[in-house]
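Hey team,

Sharing the Response regulator run so nobody has to redo it. Sequence (166 residues) first:
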Amino acid sequence: MSRIMLVDDEPNMLSALQRALRQSKPLAGAQIETFTNPFDALNRICVCEFDLVVSDFMMPEMSGGEFLQALKEVAPTTVRIMLSASTDFKTAMAAINDAHVFRFIPKPWQQAELEQNILQGLEERQRLLAEAGKAPSPQELEARRLEAEEPGLLHVKRSDDGSIIL
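Structure output:
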């Protein structure tokens, strides 16, 4: 199951983006967390690993480029995608060069393009994990899938004497 983080200072934009991802059949079942504050998003990624992050560029507390650059430092194998209403070439190049952004998607986005870029980003994540020697085994992937379908299925609680607690 994929974990995706969405960061945008506009709650309506976050809702639209989340709705777009939930409508995508290939992304069905993905765990999506949203943040309007990039500092809260950075705190969250320090305690929970995400496969992919989609961030707006223009945010008041911290630019999307600064956020994704900080994210690269704490979670180097998390794939970074930037959304922006700006068509400024320098903006896109700075994001790509400084934060190693995987894709730069213009607002308003096209549903098919957004979906394709996120799916490619998730494939890139697997490649990055394999390079880093952190790729999950097929058994781990299956265990994650089962746990997502039935939370608690793989976690057995035992008493001190070793008997199973129901």
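The chain has a mean pLDDT of 85.

Ping me if you want the raw files.
A.
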